[in-house]
Amino acid sequence: MLKSEVTRVSGPSTSSRRRSSSNSPLYEKSSKRYRRTPTPSSESESDYDDDDKYEQKRNKDDDEEEGEVPSKPTSNPPSTQTTPAVPLRTGGLYMPPAKLRLLQASLTDKSTPEYQRIAWEALKKTINGRVNKINTSNLALIIRELFKDNIVRGRGLLARGIIQAQTASPFYTSVYAALVSVINTKFPQIGELIVKRLISSFRRTYMRNDKSNCLATTKFIAHLVNQNILHEIVALQILVLLLEKPSDDSVELAIGFLKECGQKLSQVSPRGLDSVFSTLRNLLHESSLDKRTQYMIEVLFAVRKDQFKANPSIPSGLDLVDENDQYTHMITLDDECQPEPMLDVFKYDEAYEENERKYKEIRKTILDESSDDEDESSSDASDGDEDNDKKKDDVDEEEQEGDQVEKKQDTIIDQTETNLVTLRRTIYLTIQSSIGAEECAHKLLKMNLRPGQEMELCQMILDSCAQQRTYERFFGLLGQRFCLLKKEYVECFEKVFQDQYEIVHRLENVKLRNVAKFFGHLLVTDAISWGVLRCIRLTEEDTTSSSRVYIKNLFLELAEFLGLTKLNNRLTDPTLAEYFDGLFPRDNPKNARFSINFFTSIGLGGLTDDLREFLRTNPTPTPPVQTTIPIKTEIKDEEDDYKDHDRIQARVHELQIEQQKTKKQKEDKNTKKNKKKTKQRSPSTSSASSTSSSSSSSSASPSPPRPPPPPPPSSSSRTHRDERDRRNENNKSERRQQDRRNETKRDERQQRDRRSPSPDRRKEERHHREKRSSSPDRRHHHYHKSSKH
């Protein structure tokens, strides 16, 4: 006969309810009378005897571990006893351990729903019992025991048990947070489930004004933030929500939350913490809060002044996980958090044995167990040697089958890039929440990027820099910091430079300037190699307007930091010359002139001295070495040169004709004026003037047109002519420079004299003016002399 007591298995006080006042003989008889399962009448006497034996052995059985499901029976049942009936529902029913083992022994097929249901109830009891026993001293032992159970299948039970235990005893919140931190490193999906349930619970309790449960939930969330399980953005969102519409209860919740995670927020987000405390200061001075609440705010300011020494973020003995090994969940209050309550309910698993075998392999890697230890731990409930051998054979067969199944499995690729989007969002928020470059680099390094994600980090830093209104030196220092830390980041930034130059035509003007200044900073500080400039080819065909603006901003930034002299020395360095062939092309005079004109137009003409010298010494490009030279192409080139020469000569002739026409027009005007004057004079003078005007008109008659240009010269004469033209251009440029210098000196001298003229100078000027005014005849005399000449 099956006797049971109705109790709650999942509650925190299961053991106390198990030992109730039902030990009295009177209660035993009544329970036997009214709580019995229908069985055949022939087995009633034996069942009564069994119940008496179970009651006598109950104290011994309670000390043993409850809930294990041995795969083989420990001993053969008596021949006179039949298999007890399997209850359709075991949830909420208490079963004596001996009766439970007897029931388990009758079920050998693991694929049946009855066996899985009993195993589920056993797993529930084990998880709740171990979670309720946890404290600081036995934390490591409880964690190892929990990993021995299949917490992947019972992750809903584990999450519910931890949250209920923390709500019942908030004093041990830091211990439960340390437990979750260890589990989260091995099974991040369990940590994410706990975080989602806590955020959902906070929303529900906050809307219902359930102060006690909301206080316990916020305390648990604060300790998860301290353990780096949850991002600090959630903590700031909770504080903003609580202080948005302040009341006595909401301010009290915010104060309790700040005491728990204030030290952590002061380290990772000091600006956010300062804004929260400024809000509390305004509430203290302006709002009409209760005296008790105001006193709590004053105490909180005193705690902050003491740097939260009374409330450390992680107490001693609970820092079990390294920051680099922790997995931080990026979940906010605005995200949709599904608590997944169906994970707490039993569900039939068709691949039960396969999942159990997979978890055994995971457990081996986590606990460093050997196959012998696993066989010994699984055979604790069996006594015979034959059963042990059979179990070992079964385990070997299961392992072989599992290897075959693993080979058949295919890798799953996430095409939605959800993880990539989450990573980029985390990087962006970390950059925006940091004050300095060193702080930001420290936070980003703690993210534990996987191999291959360095490129995403570098690209995200560049994108954040490009989206600013003006360039901020913060991003350049951040990129320089990463390049100095690891060589992988140097290669990533060089690859980003090349990719960015290929798509530079898609960027706006502001983004062009920011990106160019960012890479200019990296080049100035030698964070990346100057070899990245080999991807730039400065010719008219290979560049666009956007790429030329990009190159202009880049070199102006380099010249601003290095100076023109140092930049020229760097560009003329023989060890780096091969990287700058595209910037200063020498394959074609046209490309060389384009490069010279470009750098001269942006004010950096001094960088092209070597290229100018190259054009003087090598006016024509050296033809490539070929076995056969096509004659037609040479003839065509010569014809093109002749056409250019003819075109130039014709243009010069047209200019000369235009000059002669303008000169003739001026002379005609002068003759007309002279004729008017001579009419008023004497006839003699008019005749003389007429003769002079006729002579002048005859002299001003247009010259006959110039003969046609000579035939095109040969190649040798053409080279001599180019050299002569080049020398003339150089002489002209030198004369212009000398004239400019003389003009500037003369202007400076005149300004100096105007500012402070000496007394002697004044006397000379006065004497010169008197002399000019007193001697008009002398001036006429000079005029006549000049006319004679």
From TrEMBL:
Q: Which InterPro entries match?
A: ARM-type_fold (IPR016024), CWC22_splicing_factor (IPR050781), Initiation_fac_eIF4g_MI (IPR003891), MIF4G-like_typ-3 (IPR003890)
Gene3D superfamilies reported for this sequence: 1.25.40.180
**Cellular component terms per the entry's GO annotation:** catalytic step 2 spliceosome; nuclear speck
* Segments of skewed composition (Pro residues): 702-714
Give the Low complexity compositional bias ranges: 70-84, 681-701
Molecular function (GO) terms for this protein are:
RNA binding
Annotated GO biological processes are: mRNA splicing, via spliceosome
**Protein name, per record:** MI domain-containing protein
Protein species of origin: Rotaria sordida
